[in-house]
Amino acid sequence: MATENKNLSVYDKNKIPNAKELRFGIVVSEWNDEITESLYKGAEEALLDCGALSENVIRWNVPGSFELTFGCKKMIQTEKVDAIVAIGSVIRGETSHFDFVCSATAQGIKDLNVTYDVPVIFCVLTDDNIEQSRARSGGKHGNKGTEAAIAAIQMAVLGK
Question: What pLDDT sits at residue 6?
């Protein structure tokens, strides 16, 4: 497993640009909210820790991960953000629905990155079970939301 013995939340603040002048969007799926709320908290805390102002962090909720693409697109079009973090959690079930949702969500977010000049960071956990999701949303592997927020800062300054 790629994250074996690696905590995703560790970053060197001295190597991250200051986010004080940047505006961020976070679009959060309400599905599997135990996980997505933890991811959101990790992302928000990292942005604030790196200098972002709370009034410059905008949160929108969408019903599920499949809807993240549309939510991010509308945020790009209306909120003048420098970067967006798309937060979701898809946990494998007994049907192929998991594969369709994961593929469509990843492709949709990729398409936004190709179409618009606002980076959209993919923070969608695609795990086999709830234990894996918990381990990556504040558990033994840290918080993928934190990692996504750091990537958002780094990508936001590329275009400035």
Answer: 58
